[in-house]
Amino acid sequence: MHVPTIRLNDGASIPQLGFGVFLVPREDTQRTVEQALQVGYRHIDTAQMYDNEAEVGAAIRASGIPREDLYVTTKLNNGHHLPDDARRTFAESLEKLGMDRVDLFLIHWPLPTRYDGDFVSTWRTLIELRASGGTTSVGVSNFEPDHLDRIIDETGVVPAVNQIEVNPYFTNEAARAADARHGIATEAWSPIARGRVAHDETIGAIARRLGRTAAQVTLRWHLQRGDIIFPKSMHRERMEENFALFDFALSDEDMAALSALDRGESGRTGPNPNTFDMIHRSGE
Ligand code: NDP
């Protein structure tokens, strides 16, 4: 199965389909990631907040897959936005992963109501980390259009990606359009709305007609919109299901039917980035 790659605005390439490990308990992470790698995933999305970077690294080493064939993302935890904390914990992430470089490092949340509203100095620190060679690309997550404008205006550096919530119930067009305007690749988190799409009648009817599952139809919708996705599953059959997306296509009508499920703000599965302010201190 050939996974397409997307070229980022800094010249690097990222596999459009990967595997996410949010809410994979630490004790299950090595096994889960090893299975995902066996299925064929070569892009893993983790975070300091998920508290499973060491187990992701162990799975990668155990797989024997050359590092250059893998794409690894991690993210700065909410409690670590001050420049010195960002530098220190980034070094810890590399150590836990057992790597001298990640492919992508993101600010996990903008936290505009914390740190006196200053996420620009955090962004400057990520730019510094990229210059030092510890990460190939740098980007952001959960940044709203005005947050993007601000970091770009103040630093002149455009993030390579913005990882935001996108699913058929929350199509998040405003943030996707802002990303596109700046040449930022959109990564769609919780792409199957944490499994909710499996019970959707509209998506189910399309899936039955195509001989696919609702999850596959939804993941295909994302791919055809050009977004990068990394569905999570702890079950091998679902990992395989979520990876089998490249031998069918959705018509314009089917694409439109999924997009029409958008419910705006009430369709979110996660918090609104303008108000989310949780400082997670796991592992500290
Ligand atoms: P997903 O939309 O990927 O859904 C995962 C859930 O759906 C799990 O409960 C899983 O259960 C179930 N599932 C998986 N495959 C199927 C299937 N084929 N049919 C039915 N159910 C299925 O949610 P996530 O929140 O995990 O999002 C994916 C990734 O995005 C995360 O792992 C993380 O890397 C990233 N993310 C980033 C955020 C951010 O703020 N930047 C926020 C949230 C997520 P089971 O495991 O039992 O199979």
Kindly report the average pLDDT value: 97
CATH topology of the domain at 5-191: TIM Barrel
Rg of Cα set: 18 Å
Strand content: 5-15%
Instruction: Write the H/E string, N to C.
Output: EEEHEHEHEHEHEHEHHEHH
The strand count comes to: 10
How is the biggest beta sheet arranged?
Answer: 8 strands, parallel
Detail the topology: elements first, then pairings:
Layout: E1 5-7, E2 13-15, E3 19-20, H1 26-39, E4 43-45, H2 53-63, E5 71-76, H3 83-97, E6 102-107, H4 120-131, E7 135-141, H5 145-155, E8 161-165, H6 173-182, E9 185-189, H7 201-210, H8 214-225, E10 228-229, H9 236-243, H10 252-259
Helix pairs in contact: 1-2, 1-9, 2-3, 3-4, 7-8
The chain binds NADPH dihydro-nicotinamide-adenine-dinucleotide phosphate.
3D architecture notes:
Strand 8, helix 6 and strand 9 (185-189) form a beta-alpha-beta unit. The protein has a domain at 5-191: Alpha-Beta Barrel (TIM Barrel), CATH 3.20.20. 39% of the residues lie in helices and 15% in strands. The chain has helices at 26-39, 53-63, 83-97, 120-131, 145-155, 173-182, 201-210, 214-225, 236-243, 252-259; strands at 5-7, 13-15, 19-20, 43-45, 71-76, 102-107, 135-141, 161-165, 185-189, 228-229. The chain is α/β, with parallel strands linked by helices and 284 residues long. Strands 3-4-5-6-7-8-9-10 form an 8-stranded parallel sheet. It has a two-stranded antiparallel sheet with strand order 1-2. The protein is built from 10 helices and 10 strands. NADPH dihydro-nicotinamide-adenine-dinucleotide phosphate binds next to helix 9.
